[in-house]
Specification:
371 residues; Rossmann fold; Zinc Finger, Delta Prime, domain 3; five-stranded parallel β-sheet; 7 strands; 8% strand
Length: 371
């Protein structure tokens, strides 16, 4: 199989290609350019935000034949070997599969020997929190006083499980979840380069489904291309993600704001034909109510949303009072909590909508339909 998944094909190989994580990029590039290097780095953060990617870029910067800098050439023998995962002085270890103390001792046996090919011998230990206490103890002495030619790069999604003695020996960098706008921009760039037809709204759905992880979003993008037979459309993405009906939430909230109970129930009946995830609908309602509340305070607070979402949010912000927004949001929270206890999910969702309408402040002389 010659086809390479997008997440691997478009994995950054330099700091310039890195998406987000500006605080990490700035610190590491300055350290590399000024020669202020540490012997152990710890990268933390959720899955798919760039921990291992940054570690590999750092390994390339340290061993580029042109010299240590934040801009490796990418063309020398060492850079090419690291890109192809065949650089003998970059030892990558998955701690989840090598948790025993004997595995750690075996790994450290050759620490004292000089690098075979590069300038530094780099130990990249992924999911380091999976090591046992005995394995950590075996690593401590070497981690504290390693030879000058050794650099440790540790990555973990759960730093709380690391021993304080390990944390104190490392420079720590926490990688943040990426915003949907950054991920959407990256997906658009990738599809443009891959010459794949797409709809921008589809990319926003994928970016939000990635939940801050570029890798997750890229994996979903691969799936969306296959699902759409070579194109990425909003309808196909919504069907693939199982989020049918989410696009109807703005109009449903508009019915609630206007006190149109009959129209709201009719809309729910139409939604039921698509067999939606009712929990996802309530979650989408919570998210939209939050954006509306933010928009009522500052319009710039919704700049990260898609143009279509911004339009819907502004329209709702104009017809919903701040007091009712807070009440509706609280109802959505309790509705999300109580839905699993209901005998029928659709009935529980209908009761949530009717509850919002019942407590909506009526205007003078107004008659709420369906009442």
């Amino acid at each position: 199989m010659n086809q390479q998944v997008l997440a691997r094909k478009w994995r950054p190989t330099t700091f310039d290609q890195l998406i987000g994580q500006e605080h990490v990029r700035k610190a590491l590039t300055h350290a590399l350019n000024t020669g202020r290097l540490h012997h152990a780095y710890l990268f933390t953060g959720t899955r798919g935000v760039g921990k291992t990617t940054i570690a590999r870029i750092l390994a390339r910067c340290l061993n580029c034949e042109t010299g240590v800098s934040a801009t490796p050439c990418g063309e020398c023998r060492n850079c090419q070997a690291i890109s192809d995962n065949r650089f003998v002085d970059l030892l990558e270890v998955d701690a989840a599969s090598r948790t025993k103390v004997d595995d750690t001792r075996e790994l450290l046996e050759n620490v004292s020997y000089a690098p075979s090919q590069g300038r530094y011998k780099v130990y990249l230990i992924d999911e380091v929190h999976m090591l046992t206490t005995h394995s950590f103890n075996a690593l401590l002495k070497t981690l504290e006083e390693p030879p000058e030619h050794v650099v440790f790069l540790l990555a973990t999604t759960d730093p709380q499980k690391l021993l304080p003695t390990v944390l104190s020996r490392c420079l720590q960098f926490h990688l943040r979840d990426l915003g949907p706008d950054l991920i959407e921009s990256h997906l658009e760039h990738v599809l443009s380069e891959e010459q794949v037809t797409f709809e921008k709204d589809a990319l926003w759905h994928l970016a939000k489904a990635g939940r801050g992880s570029v890798r997750d979003a890229m994996t979903l993008l691969d799936q969306a291309i296959a699902h759409g037979e070579g194109t990425v459309s909003a309808d196909n993405v919504i069907e693939m993600l199982g989020t049918q009906g989410v696009s109807e939430i703005p109009q449903l909230l508009s019915d609630i704001a206007a006190g149109q109970a009959t129209d709201a129930l009719s809309r729910i009946s139409d939604l039921a034909r698509e067999t939606p995830d009712w929990m996802a609908l309530i979650s989408g309602m919570q998210s939209l109510l939050h954006h509306v509340a933010i928009a009522q305070v500052t319009d710039q607070g919704i700049n990260h949303l898609s143009p279509g979402e911004q339009k819907a949010v502004r329209e709702l912000a104009a017809v919903m009072s701040p007091e009712f927004l807070q009440l509706a949001y609280q109802f959505a929270l309790t509705g999300y909590r109580d839905l699993p206890m209901a005998s029928d999910a659709r009935s529980a969702f209908e009761m949530l909508v009717l509850r919002m309408i019942a407590f909506r402040p009526a205007r003078a002389g107004e008659v709420i339909s369906g009442s």
